[in-house]
Write a structure and sequence with these properties.
three-stranded antiparallel beta sheet, alpha+beta, single chain
């Protein structure tokens, strides 16, 4: 089995994302930076955020992802981020990619970091 190659994604010659992981044959590309402000879950889902399993796949490559983010002016993934996975009616999963830790967070009342997934 070959190791996944983390690399920068460019558009018109400018870095816009990191090719961060692959899951079920789908390559996950995340934006270089978080949204300007933390969001509630409903707003975050509209932006397009990774699922819980996608975040965990990114966590497996975190050293390489962090190195590429830093090299191209991106922000590190060292906080709690919303995933698109709901835990219940009122809660959704948050993931800290730096160590793969997961927890529930209130979808309505809590505001967490958002890193969008980019589609090409």
């Amino acid at each position: 089995m070959s190791k996944f190659k983390v690399m920068i994604v460019k558009k018109d010659g400018l870095p816009i994302a990191v090719r961060a992981a692959e899951i079920n044959g789908r390559v996950i590309c995340i934006a270089l930076k978080d949204t300007p402000e933390p969001m509630n879950w409903c707003d975050a889902v509209e932006c397009g955020i990774p699922s819980k399993s996608e975040w965990l796949a990114i966590s497996e490559n975190i050293k390489s992802v962090s190195r590429v983010l830093k090299k191209y002016g991106g922000e590190p993934l060292d906080d709690w981020y919303w995933s698109s996975a709901e835990g219940s009616y009122d809660y959704a999963w948050v993931v800290r990619p730096s160590d793969g830790d997961m927890n529930y967070s209130s979808k309505s009342y809590n505001h967490n970091r958002v890193r969008c997934v980019l589609a090409f």
